[in-house]
Write a structure and sequence with these properties.
Strand content: 15-25%
Largest sheet: 6 strands, mixed
CATH topology of the largest domain: D-Maltodextrin-Binding Protein, domain 2
Radius of gyration: 19 Å
Low-confidence stretches: 1-27
Structural class: alpha/beta
Number of strands: 11
Strand order of the largest sheet: 1-3-2-4-11-5
Shape: globular
CATH class of the largest domain: Alpha Beta
CATH architecture of the largest domain: 3-Layer(aba) Sandwich
Length: about 350
């Protein structure tokens, strides 16, 4: 894709994002008088919102003298064009999209992370006995290069299944994909672990967790443009510091974290999904307690894109990493022991 094509796509999405901000849909702010301002894009939070939104909930950013305007997107297909168009300064997203955008000329940097641990899984009807038996099945994803598709293909490769032998269909967002398995419209869905408790009730099988099958597959990184670092470097540092403090606070205050998740999803705090998801993240090592950039895992993803035919050559990752802002953020709040399962590999 040419740079002019990137610009055109970004401009179209920018118009959509401006409309979202104008009507207030999913747009919230954490303010601090006289502070730098930065716009932070995230995907619509799920049962993990007790972790991902705690920095905003407690406004930890104020102590770091940064105003953060939070904009929610449905998917990477909205978030990354908005980042390229300059409508948001930083996005929390999967590195895969950033690698593709970089290869097409975008000047992006990985500056931190919130949850590098991958929380996806494959859900299946009972007639699919195992990962190794996926050939011939219909599997629900979003877009061909989106996270649900890429992580599912990675899991297939690791399980000696040819991804070409599985029919991939666009089955909507995560809740829609899971429901499509329950209703029998598809046999398998790639979706977050949010539905594990409900799956037991629905008689749906958890074929495998990405964490177990492809442990090097990363989930989230904090991604920004070079020009943002040049013009708003202090605000980027403050954003990272507040996010990391939010992650740490949520991990140490289960009641508050689960209450925030329940409020975000508009479900009772007693909903089993809320407690199960919190336990998964708390015990499972998914979190970046110091905002660590999962560099090795991003390199795995770059190589995987080649194996899957998404790119012809692996995108060089090291030039896309700038760890200096995260280091400044952690210096301000203090370093704690890492719990990320990827650091133990």
């Amino acid at each position: 894709m040419s740079r002019s094509r990137i610009a055109a796509l970004a401009a179209v999405t920018a118009t959509m994002v401006l409309g979202l901000a104008a009507c207030g849909g999913g747009d919230t702010s954490a303010t601090a008088g006289g502070a730098d301002t930065i716009t932070y894009g995230i995907y619509e939070p799920g049962a993990d919102s007790g972790y991902l939104l705690m920095g905003q909930e407690k406004n930890f950013w104020a102590k770091h003298k940064v105003n953060v305007k939070v904009v929610q997107f449905k998917s990477a297909q909205q978030a990354f064009p908005a980042l390229l168009a300059g409508q948001v300064d930083v996005v929390q997203g999967n590195p895969s999209e950033a690698l593709l955008a970089s290869q097409k000329g975008a000047k992006l940097k990985f500056v931190g992370s919130t949850m590098p641990g991958q929380n996806y899984a494959l859900y299946a009807k009972p007639d699919v006995p195992a990962m190794s038996a996926l050939a011939g099945a219909t599997l629900g994803i979003s877009t061909p290069t989106g996270l649900p598709a890429v992580v599912a293909k990675a899991m297939m490769l690791q399980s000696s299944v040819d991804p070409a032998s599985v029919k991939l269909v666009n089955a909507g967002g995560s809740p829609d994909r899971y429901k499509a398995v329950v209703s029998g419209q598809i046999q398998v869905a790639s979706a977050p672990l949010d539905y594990t408790v409900q799956a037991e009730k629905d008689g749906i099988k958890l074929l495998g967790r990405a964490k177990d099958v492809v442990p090097d597959f990363p989930r989230y990184a904090l991604i920004t443009r070079d020009e943002v670092l040049q013009s708003k470097g202090a605000a980027v540092t403050g954003l990272i510091a507040g996010l990391v403090e939010g992650i740490r606070y949520a991990d140490a205050h289960q009641d508050e974290a689960t209450a925030l998740a329940a409020k975000t999803l508009k479900v009772p705090a007693t909903d089993p999904m809320i407690a199960a998801t919190y336990k998964e993240f708390h015990d499972g090592g998914y979190l970046a307690m110091n905002g660590e950039i999962p560099v090795r895992q991003i390199k795995y993803l770059a190589d995987l894109q080649v194996k899957l035919g998404i790119t012809k050559t692996a995108v060089p990752v090291d030039p896309l990493v700038d760890d200096s802002y995260r280091q400044k953020a952690v210096a301000a709040i203090g370093e704690v022991p890492s719990t990320y399962y990827g650091d133990a590999r």
